[in-house]
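INTERNAL AUDIT FORM
Audit reference: QA-55
Scope: verify that the stored structure record matches its stored sequence.
Auditor: D.O.
Record contents follow.
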Amino acid sequence: MAVPGSLRTFCLFLGSLLLALATARSPARASEYRQLPPAAPTALTAEWLIHDAVRNRLILYLPGYHQPAHAYYQWVQVERNQPFPLSFAAQPGLSLFLDNQLIFTARAAATYAVDIAQLLPAQLAPGRHLLAVWQPEGNPALASFLGVSSRGLVDGQAKARVGEAQPRLPSPQGQNVYLGFLLVIGLSYGAVRSTYQLGMARIFQVEELFGNGSNQQAFLSKPAFTLLNLLLVGLFSLSFGLLLTAIHTDLQNLPLLRRFFNVPETAIAVRVLLYTVIIAVFVFGKYLYIGVLGYIFGLQSLVNMQYREFLRTTLLAGLALPLVLLLYLSLNSSYPQPVAWAASAAIGIVLVGTVLRVGHTLHRHASLLNLHLFAYLCATEVLPLLVLLKVVVFTY
């Protein structure tokens, strides 16, 4: 049947009208489109936000461009039935907030592992929250904030309850690295002893510490910088750096050091070598420090003897450091806190004992009752001792 011309014209007109209406409404629909905000990540990222006080908003923190801040922020997605494990190094006072509500405060300097989902306050609904990291004095170590597996958080320690967290224990992989370094230290000491038998016997002769004869005077008058001493200082620095790394005395947390070195916590071997270099530089640099103060106080004649005694006592005490580290690795899993305190006490004994021995040697040559000599001893030995105790022992 043929379609009438009028009906065909009407259908064409109706189709054109509908097409025109659809085309006219498309721009309006496009103008009403709004891009949704990005969903909060389900894990921590390396990008942090800081507060722009002038514009009162959060902006992306760019290291090297923005000044370090006390507080850093990040949007996170927290669900109560989905673990959100987090590992970080904290100084005393470091606090974590979720939507401006306190969930954790570090009472001591250590490396912590927490589950943000377990720390979520009851009054906060699961979902997108603003995580804030705040350090009242200094700056948080952002590079240490890492994600850890929920299995490691459960098996390695008890899950953190609201308002507290447990220090994370060394992993078996870390213990293998420590044992490897211990093996290198033991073999190196054996090689040095077989090569320099007479020199090693003179340095590590305990009765020489309490002697007062011509042999003692001749020993203290010998040059301090010999090839044997350089090798022994390197082994002592490696032993000390290894022990510092094992007991979690993270020098990386110091703001001054963190400006120059940014070593991840997981790079155990790199951290050990970094601490070894720092300790060796300190041991050798002390000779320059003593020389400058000896010139200022007019006591240049005591510089070589004082440094020689410092070097001998330090190297002798360093023989006990590998043994302390071995005991620490053996008992740390069973008694973490007592063993950590014992290791820190051993380091304190080494530092204090060295200063006492040097003071005793100086007192034999010139009485410390002399105020001038006592002030020199305080400037060259006591002041560096207080700094080391603060940085290495009491801070951690």
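Auditor finding: record pair retrieved intact. The mean pLDDT is 76.
Action required: none
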